[in-house]
Amino acid sequence: MNVLQINASARREGANSTRVANSIVARLQSENPSASLTLRDFSGDPHPALDEAALGALTQLKNWIDAIARNGVTFRYTATGPKGLLTGKKVYVALARGGRYRETEADSQAPYLKTVLGFLGMTDLHFIYAEGLNMGPESAAQGFAQAAADLAAAFAFN
Ligand SMILES: Cc1cc2nc3c(=O)[nH]c(=O)nc-3n(C[C@H](O)[C@H](O)[C@H](O)COP(=O)(O)O)c2cc1C
Q1: Ligand 1 centre and the CA of 131: distance in Å?
Q2: Residue 116: CATH number of its domain
Q3: Is any atom of ligand 1 closer than 6 Å to the C-beta of 7?
Q4: Structural domain boundaries enclosing 129
């Protein structure tokens, strides 16, 4: 198994999404001890022309997605429309938020990622939510507990 971990937070230290992503990767490695890990960190190694001060996390991630969405490489056009070429992959998405937007219209991240990852052929998606992180310590603890529960559920269905 080859694991690609993409840290999309603008923060190099203390990022909640990276904390959740690390727990996902730890789980993958515990189940697949020989798995190789490739780490892309957009805060420490941003895509050219973007930096931490200029752009938020989703914009960094969108910039990277724009760079990898390439006709003939990661998707191709067919007589019946575009076809994603990145098939057979599992994707775990760690979402960290100050508020709570899961399954509401204000959630701009999960629908966008579902659409664009699906376009590239990735349909086995698991969203791990740590929400309510800026609504007091009790809410933050609940948010990380929810992320742990989402992670357990994602692996229960594997
Ligand atoms: C500039 C800025 C804007 C933010 N806007 C929102 C927001 O609109 N909604 C929300 O739920 N959280 C918002 N947050 C909180 C982040 O979602 C939260 O800090 C999250 O942990 C960031 O991910 P990270 O810890 O991986 O960097 C914002 C944080 C910052 C720094």
Answers
A1: 10
A2: 3.40.50.360
A3: no
A4: 2-156
Residue 5 has pLDDT above 70, yes or no: yes
What's the confidence (pLDDT) of residue 55? 54
Q: What is the pTM of this model?
A: 0.84
How many domains are contained in the chain?
1
Residue carrying structure tokens 């007091």: 136
**108 in ligand 1 pocket by Cβ < 6 Å?**
no
